[in-house]
Design brief:
By secondary structure, the chain is an alpha/beta fold. The protein has 2 domains: 164 residues, P-loop containing nucleotide triphosphate hydrolases (Rossmann fold, 3-Layer(aba) Sandwich); 121 residues, Zinc Finger, Delta Prime, domain 3, CATH 1.20.272. It is built from 16 helices and 5 strands. Strands 2-3-4-1-5 form a 5-stranded parallel beta sheet, sandwiched between helices. Strand 3, helix 6 and strand 4 form a beta-alpha-beta unit. Helix 5 packs parallel to helix 6, helix 9 packs across helix 10 and helix 15 runs antiparallel to helix 16.
Length: 335
């Protein structure tokens, strides 16, 4: 089993290096703000940091053992000196911050440290934010706050100025794909979803969306129809396309899928087929790549990207797609 600390170092090397330096030099700040997309490990990192502070048998001076009573109690969410706040409904309210303040006037039960985590700190009401600001302005000794947010721009500047800010990098497509597969999402859906977003929650929702599964199928069928060389094959497929992709945002997604098909072709042509958006179509795409020149591929990708530009300038969606399909087909099969 991979050590959670080592796993975090691999996922967020810059963040973990700064945390390690703080622990080794005994320069733990009284407040940290972790900013990053959903699924980038902000809360897990805050919990690891807390374990480092409370651990009874740390490895290499700062890596929590994960098995002592303090580590286990933190893992199970029942350590008396670690408090976590989540939004109550749509926001974090002043009463929740007051609860923290009351708890932190008490003496630490298990050790000299007291830690609190405020998840989605950007959702604090104005009164809650002002209460927290007063709390941060007069920090108690050995008290550490972790404020977690996806958008630091929505946090009071005066709060930001009192925190050490650490930015969590987005997950790359390969890591996100693997995590989706671990969530029992099929390889084809995990592959395509991980190319369209770097957000875990969005990728899961996309992977489980029946409309999106149909969208993927329709775009692939339309792509296959383009290879036939005749309009008779494209017309019914084009009709299916327009029935399914009705809104501007949906057409934009379809164009993204077309781009990904052609990026897969490029990856195959350059022998980099280890991370395809459509791995289940590898054999077919390999065959297509044999008859597709690099120049033709570049022209097709340029046409798709130009269609996205025109879509954003409010060109008629149906006319735009008809023009694009004619360009992609070029009047004949791949040459």
């Amino acid at each position: 089993m991979v050590n959670p600390w080592k796993k975090a170092e691999k996922r967020q090397p810059v963040v973990m290096r700064m945390i390690e330096n703080s622990l080794l030099r005994d320069r733990v700040a009284h407040a940290y703000l972790f900013e990053g997309d959903p699924g980038t490990g902000k809360k897990e990192t805050a919990m690891l940091f807390a374990k480092s502070l409370f651990c009874l048998e740390p490895q290499d001076q700062y890596i929590p053992c994960g098995s002592c009573i303090n580590c286990r109690r933190i893992e199970n969410g029942n350590h008396p000196d670690l408090h976590s706040i989540e939004p109550d409904g749509l926001s974090i309210k002043k009463e929740q911050i007051h609860y923290l303040q009351r708890e932190f006037t008490k003496t630490a039960v298990e050790s000299g440290w007291k830690v609190y985590i405020v998840n989605q700190a950007d959702k604090m009401t104005a009164s809650a934010a002002n209460s927290l600001l007063k709390f941060l302005e007069e920090p108690s000794a050995n008290t550490v706050a972790f404020l977690l947010t996806e958008q630091s721009s929505r946090v009071l500047p005066t709060i930001l100025s009192r925190c050490q800010q650490l930015a969590f990098k987005p997950m790359d497509a390969d890591e996100l794909k693997q995590r989706l597969i671990e969530e029992s999402i099929s390889i084809p859906m995990a592959s395509i979803s991980s190319k369209l977003t770097s957000h875990m929650e969005e990728a899961v929702a996309l992977s489980n969306d029946e409309w999106f599964a149909q969208a993927r199928s329709i775009v692939l069928k339309l792509y296959e129809g383009l290879k036939g060389g005749g309009l008779s094959a494209i017309v019914p497929l084009s009709e299916d396309f327009h029935l399914h992709f009705k809104e501007k945002q949906q057409v934009s997604l379809a164009l993204d899928l077309f781009v990904l098909i052609h990026r897969d072709l490029l990856s195959i042509m350059t022998d980099e087929k280890y991370s395809l958006a459509f791995p289940d179509r590898l054999a077919s795409l390999q065959q297509d790549a044999l008859y597709l020149s690099a120049e033709k591929l570049a022209d097709r990708m340029a046409a798709i990207l130009e269609a996205k530009r025109k879509l954003n300038s409010n060109m008629n969606q149906q006319l735009l797609m008809e023009q694009l399909l004619l360009k992609l087909q070029g009047g004949h099969a791949f040459v």
